[in-house]
Specification:
The complex is a heterodimer of chains A (119) and B (111). Chain A has 119 residues and is mostly beta strands. Chain A has strands at 3-7, 11-12, 18-25, 35-41, 48-54, 59-61, 69-74, 79-84, 93-101, 105-109, 113-117. In chain A, the strands form 2 sheets. In chain A, strands 2, 4, 5, 6, 9, 10 and 11 form a 7-stranded mixed sheet that branches. A 4-stranded antiparallel sheet of chain A has the order 1-3-8-7, with no helix packed on it. The radius of gyration of chain A is 13 Å and the shape is globular. The N and C termini of chain A lie far apart (39 Å). In chain B, a hairpin with a 6-residue loop joins strand 3 (35-40) and strand 4 (47-50). With 111 residues, chain B is mainly beta. In chain B, strands 1, 3, 4, 7, 8 and 9 form a 6-stranded mixed sheet that branches. In chain B, strands 2-6-5 form a 3-stranded antiparallel sheet, with no helix packed on it. The chains are: A mainly beta (119), B mainly beta (111). At the A-B interface, strand 5 and strand 10 of A face strand 7 and strand 8 of B.
Chain lengths: 119, 111
Amino acid sequence: QLQLQESGPGLVKPSETLSLTCTVSGGSINSSSYYWGWIRQPPGKGLEWIGSMYYSGSTYYNPSLKSRVTISVDTSKNQFSLKLSSVTAAETAVYYCARGGWLAYFDYWGQGTLVTVSS
Amino acid sequence: QSALTQPPSASGSPGQSVTISCTGTSSDVGGYKYVSWYQQHPGKAPKLMIYEVSKRPSGVPDRFSGSKSGNTASLTVSGLQAEDAADYYCSSFAGTNNWKVFGGGTQLTVL
């Protein structure tokens, strides 16, 4: 059974960089059939797609975040990561990692991790 | 403001059917077959219920069905059950500029 687990600091200061890692178990991140993505959800609000990547390194970003986002992969550790720079308090949210079929859907999700942006 | 428009709430009695709409444009919902729907219970991660407009992943009851007409996609839940009460989100591929967008979500209440 595929499982995804987010990890990283739960508190980030404004203007700093948010960094999260998603560890994939029960399957290989090298699969040519799937993409891997990040989605966030502010408390009490809806879902927002941040970006997705293919194991080969191809990346796709939400244009509203593109200048501040980097998604990368470490195939040796079966992990992929999110970096979001210059964060503000409005970016306090639960951050999810997920597996997807290209950019069509996300079929496996991590449990999510709450990141609070506050000084 | 979300790229796709959903009604904030919907409701139905047990056993009834309810349909949730998701309205976009020809650049997303209307232009591609890549509409998906997610169910989210409080404090839980979203769960994929429908992909590619009308396909159901393994394990999703056939009470859930999806369709699309023009720029509007729909999720229908038939034979409502108490456990169907949740938030539902639609999503669509949005071309090579915006890539992927979500709706604002619909809270489904089972009366």
